[in-house]
Amino acid sequence: MSTTQSTIQPTAAPEKLGIGARFSIHPHCDDFVPVILGALEDVEAAGLTDGLVLETDDVSTYVGATGAPAEERLARYLTGVIAAAARRSDGGHVVAHVLLSRGCPGERTCDLAVTSLPTPEPVTVEATGVAATAHWSLYPLLDGGSDDGDHMAHIEAAIAAAQRRGTASAAAHYATRLSGDVADVLATAVDAWAQVGAHVPHVVSHLTVSIASPSAGPAQ
Questions:
Q1: Could you confirm whether domain 3-211 is CATH 3.40.50.150?
Q2: What does the alpha-carbon distance between residue 200 and residue 208 come to, in Å, rounded to a whole number?
Q3: Could you tell me the pLDDT band of residue 5, with boundaries at 50, 70 and 90?
Q4: Domain Thiamin/hydroxymethyl pyrimidine-binding YkoF putative spans what residues (predicted)?
């Protein structure tokens, strides 16, 4: 075996790298309990929990991807559950908080000394017909000491990609405002997070998603 062949590293599997999310949904209605529980049942019945590990506590739900395509599984699940909650709220205001994380600091089984970072394909999520806005932030955390160590370059490239996609509608303090079908909003954030993760070992992204808010947004 040549030296080049012997130094090729296998790609880190999703369950080893730690590709997952934490989310919570807050329907602003009196019957919020059946709305939340019903939305969770809807996505399970639709098969959107396949290939995912779900753990719910009194604060939020952890969603861990155990197989490829990890990013698409997460995007479809999160889109499905948020859209289902919006439909069950009959046009009421629904807010969701989503934290995406990928990388070794959150998972004890990952060893990047013997694996390489995956380069995922863009996710495909079917449109829901549910309009949403979001404040989105992206945090490349382990980028120091490498050729890709300028974290602002990654963030600016992600924002530019969202603008080309048509979902980045405005800048906000500490965030970028995304607008569109909730599927497009989630896909924008997941794609950006995943693409940065192909270069940076630990990446976190946060979204606050709002549907049918009574507050008027900024002028488009």
A1: no
A2: 23
A3: very low
A4: 132-215
